[in-house]
Every structure is written in structure tokens, then in C-alpha cells.
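dumping this here before i forget
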Amino acid sequence: MKKMIALLAVATALFTACETNTDKTEGGTGEGNMADTATAESKSERNKKVVMASMEAMMANNVDEAFKNVAPDAVDYNDGSMPAVKGKDSIMNMVKGWMNAFPDNKGTDLKYVADGDWVMVWGEWSGTWKNDFMGARATNKTYKMKDVDIFKLNDAGQIVEHHNVQSPNTMATQVGMAPPKK
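structure:
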């Protein structure tokens, strides 16, 4: 019994020492760490809300509202298959052309995940090619595809980067922009 009590006392002392050491190595008191975690969570939540509002505005075909929280020097990398589009105004012009060509563009079953500066949105997107786009004639055909949009926000809560993971070839084939792959 004495050995058990002694072992318990040693384990308690060791656990307490580790807790005290962890507080010092992680930047202070346990309370400070909780505040840091709360700050990171609130930043993630803020960023998620910014992206959610932007996506909702896009689906309402309100590009100006969608770009309300985009930094002037933002970069749209898309899926990397084309050169990046740099600057808020250039990106807005590209999106306005897209929204004109696919006015019923919408996302469904969207899932938002935020981690600090980064927000990801996964869902299914669809639309109908109703107006000419980049010199190509509209076909009135529809597309439906899965996509992940990845946004990076700065400390001010502005979107500074956009990346996406999708198959532009799938969409192009569905709407008649590209011949089906064999």
C-alpha cells in the first residue's frame, strides 16, 4: 500500500511538473493559451463568415457584393492550368464575364472548413451556358461538377488568394466547349 501511495505521489509530482513546464514553453499561463486558442478560433470563424457571405453573393449573381472583402492585390490562381489573374479589378472582370455566360451558376450542399487564414469550400456546382463567353458561342447546355475552392485571408479579413480544385475539362465537355475525351 505504501508503495502504491508513493508511486501515486511520484506520478502526481511528475504530471504537475510537466504541466508547469508546458505552460512555460507554450508562452505563459494556461489562461494565455486559452486566449490564443480563442483568438485563432475567432479568426477562423471570422474568415469563414467572410467567405460564406462572398459565396452567397456569387450565387445571387451580385459580383460587387461578392468582392466586398477582396484585397486590391488579390490573386486568383484557379486550378493552376492557366496563368494566375492578379488584382481585384481583373478578377472581378473575369468573374463578371463568367456570371454573364452562366447566370444560373450555383453551388449546392456547400461545406465550409476554416483554419486560421485559410477557408475551404467543398460542394457541387452547376449552371447553364446561356451567353457567349471569351469569344465562344453559348450552347444552352448545363454542367454539374464537384469543386473545392480554397481562400487565403489576410489579418484584416480580406481575401488575398483563391485556388480551386476542379476539372475545367469536365465542365467544358458538358457544355460543349470541348469535344468529349475518348
